[in-house]
Amino acid sequence: MKRIVITGVIALVGLLASQTSFAQVQIGIRGGANVGFASKPDFLGSLTPDFHPSVGPTGAIFLDIPLSDRISFRPEVSYIQKGVSIKEGFELNLGGFMLPLGATISYQSQHIEIPLLFKFNLTDGPVQPYLIAGPAVSYAFDGRIRTRASALLTTQPFDIDVNYGGTLSRWDVGAVGGLGLSIDAGVGKFFIEGRYTQGFTRQVQVPVVNVNVRNRGVALSLGYSFPLRF
Fold it and tell me: Which ranges in the chain belong to alpha helices (H)?
């Protein structure tokens, strides 16, 4: 599976790059924040606490390979933190003074992700709104369960490493869609971009029971791209 995905990505990028003048190809970087969350299986209902978003970093390096005046192919190699949080709390009555007590448990997984996106410029000119869409494959190289308690003060986090390969899946196949705005700046372009990622792979693999937990995320990034020249 790993070799097929990597070989396919390299072949596709090489084929498209060979069809395009390198003077037109852009290379870029972006960085920002990803708000990760996950779907909750319907059958759990009120048996378990609600899932809450978990905020983490994201960043990428990418190529922008023109296919026409308005359309380009944009393969990326990105880092992204995915996950979900569970929050529980109650109030303790201390002689009429209500002391809030609570805890937050977050599952945070560190992924290398390869989105294969198509970019659609909506207008011409120095300011260009655009759309992006395409599939993405990611691999979790690390993960942790982070626990933090709170009362009048919040405690230091306590982390437990996640062991993949059993019930938790390392791989995630999904789709990406988003909207951006680029502005000409010297030889390159500054841009701001928002995107939504929907995972299709069940992240919890349990025999017999279909636990429909899938990654989702909303990311906001700033970046810069400039033309490759040889």
Answer: 2-18
